[in-house]
């Protein structure tokens, strides 16, 4: 392991240990403010810098037709092409979700 990598990791662990209690307190205070917003059913601002938005329940918006990929792919090629030409089925490019490198710290 390179000296720079080891030094960076040690510094990160040292800082995590130093702020662990504060982070827990911050998370608890945020939970309290979320509870206030939930109880009031509205968001609010405090001290001009802290903004708390109210949560919301999911709501039913309606139904949308959905393609069952396995059934579509099992159709004969000419039937699939017919549905594509009619505009009933549109083929889209699918991508995996990108992610940035992750860092996790375990205080031992």
Can you walk me through this structure?
The chain has 108 residues and is mainly α. It has one domain. The protein has a two-stranded antiparallel sheet with strand order 1-2.
Please specify the SSE layout and strand pairing:
Blueprint: H1 3-40, E1 44-46, E2 50-52, H2 69-74, H3 77-85
Antiparallel strand pairs: 1-2
Sheet with most strands: 2 strands, antiparallel
Q: How many angstroms separate the termini?
A: 20 Å
- The string of secondary-structure elements, in order, is HEEHH
Number of strands: 2
Q: What is the CA-atom radius of gyration, in angstroms?
A: 25 Å
Point out poorly predicted stretches: none
Anisotropy-based shape? flat
- As a percent range, the share of strand residues is 5-15%
What count of helical segments does DSSP give? Answer: 3
Derived structural class: mainly alpha
Spatial sequence of strands, sheet with the most strands: 1-2
The domain tally reads: 1
**Mean model confidence by pLDDT:** 90
Helical amount: 40-55%
């Amino acid at each position: 392991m390179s000296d720079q990598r080891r030094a960076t990791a040690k510094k990160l662990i040292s800082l995590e240990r130093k702020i662990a209690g504060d982070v827990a307190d911050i998370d608890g205070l945020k939970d309290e403010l979320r509870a206030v917003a939930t109880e009031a059913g509205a968001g609010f601002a405090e001290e001009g810098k802290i903004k708390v938005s109210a949560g919301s329940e999911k709501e039913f918006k309606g139904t949308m037709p959905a393609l069952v990929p396995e059934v579509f792919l099992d159709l004969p090629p000419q039937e699939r092409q017919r549905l594509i030409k009619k505009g009933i089925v549109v083929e889209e490019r699918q991508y995996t979700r990108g992610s940035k490198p992750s860092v996790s710290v375990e205080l031992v």
